[in-house]
Specification:
The chain is α+β, with helices and mostly antiparallel strands. 20% of the residues lie in helices and 35% in strands. The chain is built from three helices and eleven strands; from the N terminus they run ββββββββααβββα.
Length: 194
């Protein structure tokens, strides 16, 4: 089945079936590439070990949540010097390893999280067909890479309580650019010297 424009997939992936439940649209997807490179040694392999399923959430279609039923293959690594003997094929254009969200859904949720923060972002995402908790939304913001710091002239320091109780941390901020430089797990003078 060709990839429909409402559920575009990267090259090498193919939709084999579409079904519907009361909560979401299920899109069955498989890879049609003949081989996959080992993530450790980059040696391509076509020797299939086994299959397993992943169920990542994807961007909604007309407000209807979409879940991909992704059939992923495991391959034998044929490089005798490689420490990894069996590996799962990687689909970096679609999903990161061990993620429950596709890359494009995660990017949209991160944009919502940066704009509205936790609770407000979670409410908006649910209304748009992307059900997510506020905690998961905030956790996905930690996956955004931080830009390089460069030279800092004025540093601001402030301490805060991690949760209720006697445990405190310190946040370091570049005062000129208003950018967080680091979050330290404690507020002792020795922590700043490192």
């Amino acid at each position: 089945m060709p990839t429909p424009p409402l559920v575009p997939l990267p090259d090498g992936l193919e939709i084999i079936a579409v079904s519907e439940t009361s909560e979401e649209l299920l899109v069955h997807v498989t890879s049609n590439s003949l081989c996959s490179p080992c993530p450790v040694c980059s040696t391509p392999s076509s020797a299939i070990h086994s299959y397993y399923r992943r169920r990542p959430a994807d961007l909604p279609c007309a407000g209807q949540p979409i879940r991909l039923l992704l059939i992923v293959r495991k391959f034998f690594c044929r490089n005798p010097t490689c420490p990894r003997k069996v590996f799962a094929e990687r689909l970096p254009e679609l999903i990161r390893p061990a993620s429950h969200l596709t890359t494009r859904l995660r990017e949209v949720l991160q944009a919502i999280g940066f704009a509205l923060n936790g609770e407000g972002g979670a409410r908006l995402a649910c209304r748009l067909g992307m059900p997510i908790s506020a905690t998961t939304l905030l956790r996905s913001l930690h996956l955004v890479p931080t830009p390089p710091v460069g030279k800092v002239r004025i540093v601001g320091l402030d301490d805060f309580a991690w949760r209720r109780g006697p445990r405190y941390g310190t946040i370091m901020i570049d005062q000129e650019r208003q950018v967080v430089l680091d979050v330290l797990p404690e507020r002792t003078p020795e922590a700043f010297q490192e």
